[in-house]
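Allow me, if you will, to draw on your knowledge of protein folds for a short while. I have a record of one protein: its chain in single-letter code and its fold written as discrete structure tokens. I remain grateful for any guidance, and I place the record below:
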Amino acid sequence: MLSKLKNIVKHTAVYSLGNLSTKLIGLILLPLFTKLLTPDEYGILAILEISSQFLIIIFSSNINISMMRWCAEEKDKIAEKAIVFTSVVSILVISVFLSVILIPFSSNFSILFFDSDKFKIYFTILFLTSSFGLFNLIPLNLIRLREKSVLYSVFTTIKFTTIMLLDIYFLVYEKMGVEGIILSQLIGQALLSVMSIPFVLKNIVLRFKFKILIEMLRYGLPLVFATISGLILSMGDKFIVKFISGDASVGLYTLGGRVAGIINVFIIQSFNLGYVPIAYKKIDTSGSNRFFSKVLTYYIFILMIAALALSLFGKELIELFALNSKYWSSYTVVALLSFAFVFKGMQNIFSLGFQFAKKTSYNAYIVLVSAILNVVLDFILVTRMGFIGAAIATLISFIFMTILTYIYSQKVYHISFELAKVFKMLITGTVLFFTSFLFNDIDLVLRIISKIVLISLFPLLLYFWDFYEEIEIDTIKNYNKKFLQYLKLKR
């Protein structure tokens, strides 16, 4: 068990390095963005980025996820490479189709989103970027399937380093604003496509399997609806905030979400990249039930510590990176969205039961219902509370979705999760967060020390609540003993 968990941790850590470059760019350039872009322009950029994600998800038909699922259970290497070739050809055709169909309507999209056709070039670049991003799903997921986490991190780091340097050039020297940022993303995606071609060619044979493509589409299309609903649930609120409160509020809400999104990028996305291919291979093997159960427990433990840290230091982080004080009020949503990401991570684990049982339509219905709930709550709460209402709606909707996913996933693929421990972590983290309010008005240095102490109390309080098993306590003691021995040798 321990060696298997270490394998997940190893791949997750390497994927985190690749995703780290993504988030570091956002953090490094955040002072530049907030200095050179107004909150309205930052809001426009957020809307464009979300639109690109919607396009990639809609047109992909989740062929990339289906490819991983089919390849994971295929024992014949030639047949596996044929599945990859089928996926590559299908996505390539769809990618070209996306640009050919949508680029002629760039002016129409500009008028629809921003009541003016002066943003036509934004959408032309956006559609091209989405086409390359769509194609890149195949090599990136193929790398995951082969468990080449280092190669994945190398590719993504090169891509995002290129984007970062181009962002600086286009913003500072060419004064291109939002157009320069999305042009950088286009070049970065195109570069990744070119870099990945040799790896893809090594993993294909020229055999197109039409029957398998139909099977993969039947498996993947329900996931498309689930993913779209998930995007509506997690990002669609920005459109509602724009409609009710304007682009500036979208900019503030997006900035708060970016800080809370550190959890999503560093932990959730990196974990999914490393864990899902391994989980597919563990289906119905000896000890798989306990393996899946312990993964959830340790996963939520890490998520809660991260959410607690971001919630307590959200204000300080916003004021550190946002040079323009007009952005500082965005810290008010960091805690709400951080805890929402904890439930998102939990729901991701629960929803794997649908994929294990190939009952993906369940997930689609649940996420769709949750997205509808989120939209209703958004219109009610944003009207009364502004962008803070959107954060509250997101948290409520994620909790609702997580509960539904657990109930129905257990019916199709039962896993004995340690729910009592999960509740203990949620309660402990919530109590510590509200306790931090007592220190908000004290001196900055003392406030920071107090918050660090509160975070450190999280694992300690769980110990007194009988959270850890005896083997876990022994393992921790052994690691501490080895660490102390290492320090002694260093001295």
